[in-house]
Amino acid sequence: MLCDKRKDELEELTRNLVAQQSESGSEDGAAGVLKQYMLRHGFDEVTTDDSGSVIGRLSGSRPGPKVLFDGHLDTVPVANPAAWTHDPYGCEIVDGRMYGRGTSDMKGAVAAFTAAARFFSQDRNRGFGGEIYIAGTVHEECFEGVAARSVSQTVHPDYVVIGEASLCDLKIGQRGRAEIVVETFGTPAHSANPDKGVNAVYAMCKVVEAIRQLPCPEHPVLGKGILELTDIKSSPYPGASVVPSHCRATYDRRLLPGETEESVLAPLQALLDKLMAADPAIRAKVSYAGGQASCYTGNTIQARRFFPAWLYNEECGFVQEILAELRAMGREIGVTQYSFCTNGSHYAGEAGIPTVGLGPSPENLAHTDDEYIELEQLYLACESYQAIMRALLK
After folding, report:
1. What are the residues whose beta carbons fall under 8 Å from the beta carbon of 55, sequence distance 6 or more?
2. Per-residue pLDDT tens digits for 70-129
3. Of 82, 97, 308, 346, whose Cβ has the fewest other Cβ atoms within 10 Å?
């Protein structure tokens, strides 16, 4: 159990992180808070990578595995401050709850595992085998797992713990996410003479209806690999007396383990080929959306929007070791999967590093007005992270 002094230290670190407004690309204030805490408390090395992610290391007195605790420092914006009954950056504590943007998603977790690393190392006077790494990553809200790539290249971890919200239960997988773009092409003409052109929107209507009939794969644990239309836009837009010559539809595709960039697009491409062969007026293509954004360091982060799924078996040795230590705390531990995408898409999905997730708060508090974290959840997360360290750094 955490003593009152350690609870106060954990609350203070959480408060200092939350007080820093840190939308994606503006995480420098929160990164500075995290960096200063680690430097002040004797971490062996604290660095900032090109994208602005902060990485800290605490080494044990004996050789052993590298265990990385990962949490993102960026938050979604506060869309309507008037909808909040508490200052989004005021960190007010009322009835055992700390309110503020990022308390649950996920600065509370970052504070909890950073403090846990300090407490674990201090209590053992560095008498453990291996190294603890802390990563406060950037741009996760926009690009799950992309900034994490440089972190894993720097650390080369043997195990990763994602601090996303789980009510302090253990998560051993998630569906992935892809953003797929379907485009149709026509010929412009004056809308008073539409027969002189080819309307790309009519072609898109046929394509969309055909895509709706495509079966999606299913997984016995993670469920359906959803393919859902999220927007359509024609051009030129607005189309003043012009037959649109281009139409773009975006689909959200939820990915399942084993799916690749090639395997996901293959049935869509085959469908388009069939439609184009049957109707010469349809010209279409499918691809992945891409994106880029500026980091607070001046670096540019960019990626194709394909973030893989991952899943481990509950019977895996490292999962069982972690569960044994968590259960030794005297509580029941649920073992499930995240319903959303996390940086685990890189660590587990791309790099194949043994990964679990555990964090304070329920998943549904993320991105909400009056976001908060229960202080008891914050304390429990800190204790749970120390249990994971006991399991993996013997």
Report:
1. 45, 46, 47, 48, 49, 133, 134, 135, 151, 154, 155
2. 999 999 999 999 999 999 999 999 999 999 999 999 999 999 999 999 999 999 999 999
3. 82
* Chain centroid, CA 198 distance in Å: 41
Residue reference for tokens 């509370």: 108
Q: How far apart are CA 358 and CA 169, in angstroms?
A: 6
First to last CA, the chain: 20
Question: Is the pTM here over 0.85, yes or no?
Answer: yes
> Mean pLDDT, the chain, as a whole number?
96
Neighbours of 195 (CB within 10 A): 7
Give the pair of three-digit tokens for residue 143: 């690009």
Collect all residues with Cβ–Cβ distance below 8 Å to 354 and sequence separation of at least 6.
158, 159, 160, 312, 316, 318, 348
Beta bridge partners of 302: 292
Long-range residue pairs from 121-128, CB within 8 A, at least 24 positions apart, any chain? 121/58, 121/60, 124/60, 126/58, 126/59, 126/60, 126/61, 127/60, 127/61, 127/62, 128/60, 128/61, 128/62, 128/64, 128/389, 128/393, 128/394
Band of residue 1 on the pLDDT scale cut at 50, 70, 90: confident
Nearest to 175, CA basis, from 154, 144, 137, 134? 144
State both tokens at 173. 């997988």
Name the residue among 179, 183, 181, 182 with its Cα closest to residue 305: 179
Q: 100 near 33, Cβ under 8 Å?
A: no
- How far is 255 from 187, CA to CA, in rounded Å? 35
Kindly state the average pLDDT of the residues 365-389.
97
With vertex at residue 104, the alpha carbon angle to CA 103 and CA 108, rounded to the nearest 5 degrees, is 60
CA 140 → CA 23, 24, 66, 137, 146, distances in Å?
Answer: 10, 8, 22, 7, 7
Distances (CA, A) of 73 to 41, 55, 249, 392: 20, 12, 31, 25
Amino acid making up residue 268: L
Check if the beta carbon of residue 103 is closer than 8 Å to that of residue 192: no
Q: Please, what sign has the CA dihedral across residues 266, 272, 276, 277?
A: positive
